[in-house]
Amino acid sequence: MKKSLPRYIVLIFFSLFILIPIIYTIMNSFMSANEINRYYSLMNESGVKTMFHIFPDDFSFEGYYNMLLRQPDYLMKFWNSLILTGSIVIGQVIISSLGGYAFAKFEFPMKNGIFFLLIILMMMPYQVTLVSNYIILDKLHLIGSMWAVIFPGIFSPFGVFLMKQVIATIPTELLEAARLDGASELQVLFRVVIPRAKSGVVSLVILSFIDNWNMVEQPLVFLKDTRQYPLSIFLAQNYSQNMSLSFACGVLAMIPVLLLFVFFEQELIEGISFSNLK
Fold first, then answer.
1. CB-hemisphere CA count at 13 Å for 215?
2. End-to-end CA distance of the chain
3. For 28, phi and psi rounded to 5 degrees?
4. Would you kindly state where each structural domain of the chain is located, as residue ranges?
5. Fewest beta carbons less than 10 Å away: which of 32, 110, 168, 267?
6. Which of 65-74, 76-85, 149-158 shows the lowest per-residue confidence on average (mean pLDDT)?
7. Residue 57, pLDDT score
8. Separation between Cα atoms, residue 234 and residue 226, nearest integer Å
9. Domain with residues 72-274, CATH architecture
């Protein structure tokens, strides 16, 4: 027990470090605008030092009322986020499953070189390819539509890398047996490979969802109509203009991610373990 005590202390410290901002956002979402202005006067450029205030003096649903009823355009931004992120996740699972299956179980010219290139692209920040993506999407006349955000996200190299690592753990004998029974390659993929790579698929869904749920640069560059912006744009730009609304929108943005993690925690852990990701 004494040997484990330092380890528990470190784990508790990092847990609190992660949980405090979440608790802080949730509790502040129940403050009224007047209370927030009183405690965060620095945001109004008054020169007064900001106080660290977690628990509201009086619980108020003013922020949620503004978000859901008085200013429903922020709720529409939430649905924009779901449409963009959901489309990217679905497309990425399909493309990554096909690509991962090809890299894991087939031989073709320059296979290792192409996969090495994918790894390099995966390590690059998205901003590196932002200009080239814009030029290509502009040539395709997609700038200003949601497809301009969806298409680059679908072809993310990380999904192919993850699914390749997971599918490679499936015994080749199972695939050969299915082929001997007359199954086509697509049938082998969807009836044999995908069910056995379920944890990898779930991991890809969660990681892809989190990554694209928080995107900021892509909508700002590729979309022209602010009504198409996702909720992440508001959270990144307007936190100091209406903090009561920002805290409520922050809680709304947490809900899908938390639900995914709560219901698919085990599959996420298994998928990362099978893919040998550290």
1. 29
2. 28
3. -70, -20
4. 5-60, 72-274
5. 110
6. 65-74
7. 78
8. 10
9. Orthogonal Bundle (1.10)
